């Protein structure tokens, strides 16, 4: 059966982050059998194209060339939270507690994927640091995240600024007997005085 | 933060079959940060729109108004395999053994989702049946699949045609001690003479 065209579309769609081959196949099938879904999807893509861009300062989303974070003057301009991806900003914003700025690296140092420090634009982060800046490092608790956290620390430790990192410990709902040793060790090391 | 636009796009994209909220979020993020990916996705959608449609006979994909299955004259025109979705055809075609035609129902009878028999176009299936047709019922091994299989059997049993259904049993790689009782029962009931 001459189904190469279908396979080709799936392979093209599948190049997007977060889509598995199976998800792409179901999505493409849905777009073929449902013209309304196809038109709606096209509309969303055009909307993104016309309205969204990336903030040249923090790398988060801009809508109509206005950054959703940087343009908010009520935010504390002296605190910069460094994250790997825009998705991390979305997740932190959901807790609605953090009121500083962000810096999205776009990627962490990953030697397996050939992402060396030189591939990541640390310069733009350094250029934002002033003498009263607090830097909160909120990278992933993975090998790559640790590597990148450490790299940024080395770059900035002599700048005489306040550098913190988010706590590592037992996640909410976590059972102690299922926790890996590194998490458990961090949780003990970072223990805090019990307060009611 | 005024992030409703982002949420709205995700909710719109998320309406597609097979996409979870998380997958949609990652996909939309990717399309925002990568203009090349966005253009490529648009191109795929336009390609689908310009080339793909649904065969009025079997409901499978047509490319340039020619059904990939029905237009193939080397296929056995007397055998019709009834499946729930176009994705099932794709999967059966991968084994490259079945050389008959298909009939895609588009959905199974599902009373929870308010899909009663009257919502499914069984008429078009019945209109294809001739006196020497073999009908292979290949619906899902779920409650809905069983219901639909039985419904089609009731519709066609007096037509004096050959009706078969695909075997139910232990899937390849399956461990007996993890198998549910219904599967095990089917596997015993459908046992076959051992042949080398």
TrEMBL record, chains A, B:
Zn-finger (C4-type) intervals are 55-70
Name a Pfam family for this protein.
Toprim_4
The GO terms describing molecular function are: DNA binding; zinc ion binding
Q: Gene3D superfamilies from the xrefs?
A: 3.40.1360.10, 6.10.250.240
Q: Tell me which Gene Ontology terms the entry assigns under biological process.
A: DNA recombination; DNA repair
Domain (Toprim): residue spans on this chain: 78-171
- Keyword match Protease: no
**Keywords for this protein:** DNA damage, DNA recombination, DNA repair, Metal-binding, Zinc, Zinc-finger
Entry-linked InterPro entries: DNA_Rcmb_RecR, Rcmb_RecR, TOPRIM_dom, TOPRIM_RecR
Q: Tell me if Cell membrane is a UniProt keyword of this record.
A: no
Q: Which residues cross the membrane?
A: none
What the protein does comes down to: May play a role in DNA repair. It seems to be involved in an RecBC-independent recombinational process of DNA repair. It may act with RecF and RecO.
Q: Which family does it belong to?
A: Belongs to the RecR family.
Q: Per its record, how is this protein called by name? A: Recombination protein RecR
The gene name on file is recR
